Amino acid sequence: MKIKNFLTGCFMSKASYRLQTIFQAIEDIEYITTTDELKVTKAIENRLIKPAIRMNIVRIAEQFNKLKDDNAFKILEQFDPDDLRGINAVRNYIAHDYDSTDDHIIEDVIRYNIPVLKKIVLELLIKEKENEL
């Protein structure tokens, strides 16, 4: 099934749409944590910014779950299974125990997991774009 990209007006696969959504959520987290010279730790502690960061982590995990539901296993194979389980566990932690989610866990996800996921997502999107030409 093809989905129309609201940014470019072009049609794309559901998997590509999900990867672009993941990439956008990662970009949003990076923007939030680097705007106004905020450091990651300070951004996570900020009462106004913290929910936005957490919501984007949830968005990332949800898109990975949808890729699994879509049987996009060739895409999911590109990611370390521990990273996928980890982002899903953090998503569950945020969604079900929001008030007591440990900020150190969120900080580790931003510092260590998000860059790895971003690199792989970007490589997959570039590969798909090259195959379209």
Automatic annotation (TrEMBL):
One term under GO cellular component: toxin-antitoxin complex
GO-annotated molecular function: hydrolase activity; nucleotide binding; RNA nuclease activity
Keywords of this entry: Hydrolase, Nuclease, Nucleotide-binding, Phosphoprotein, Toxin-antitoxin system
Coiled coil feature spans: none
InterPro entries in the cross-refs: HepT-like, HepT_RNase_toxin
Protein name (Swiss-Prot/TrEMBL): DUF86 domain-containing protein
